[in-house]
Write a structure and sequence with these properties.
The chain is α/β, with parallel strands linked by helices and 154 residues long. It has one domain: Metallo-dependent phosphatases (Purple Acid Phosphatase, chain A, domain 2), CATH 3.60.21.10. It contains four helices and eight strands; from the N terminus they run ββαβαβββααββ. The longest helix has 13 residues. The protein is globular. This is Metallophosphoesterase. It holds the Pfam family Metallophos. GO terms for molecular function: hydrolase activity.
Length: 154
């Protein structure tokens, strides 16, 4: 199950069961409400999925300013320019966005390349990502402004 842009309205969704749930960004409203973030985490724990992944979006300032705050999302694996493998499926998540004033945002392509270099093995585009990832990678999730989620399967 893949969803995004719930903006603290997650409890209004009827989410079907499945093996993996990926929330691809913007579960908060600019990280203004700690209670909203905590409720999102509680909600994730109530869902029936075997694995839950959260890739922050341009609203998740609390994670952009301090990645150690991932602990607030204890019911999900939080991917910030990282991957996780489950049953031979490797899933990569990146929150980098071209919105300069947004969480994880950098305005120019050059700045985005520089921004992502600080993360080990972080590609700067989906095409470069495809070349650098192992052949076992099946799903790539990147939050972007032009589309809520970009994903590619092999």
């Amino acid at each position: 199950m893949l969803l995004s842009d719930t903006h603290e309205l997650h409890r209004e969704l009827d989410v079907p069961s499945g093996d993996i749930l990926i929330h691809a960004g913007d579960f908060s409203m600019f990280s203004r409400s700690l209670r909203g973030i905590e409720d999102f985490n509680t909600w994730l724990g109530e869902l029936p999925h075997r694995l839950t992944i959260a890739v922050p979006g341009n609203h998740e300032f609390f994670l952009a300013s301090d990645p150690s705050r991932r602990s607030l999302l204890s019911n999900a694996t939080v991917l910030i320019n990282q991957s996780v493998e489950v049953d031979g499926l490797r899933i990569w998540g990146s929150p980098v966005t071209p919105l300069a004033n947004a969480a994880f945002g950098v305005s120019s392509a050059e700045d985005r390349r520089g921004s992502t270099r600080r993360f080990r093995n972080t590609p700067t585009s989906l095409s470069r990502m495809d070349r650098r990832m192992a052949s076992s990678t099946l799903l790539l999730v990147q939050v972007s402004i032009s589309a809520a989620v970009s994903f590619s399967t092999r």
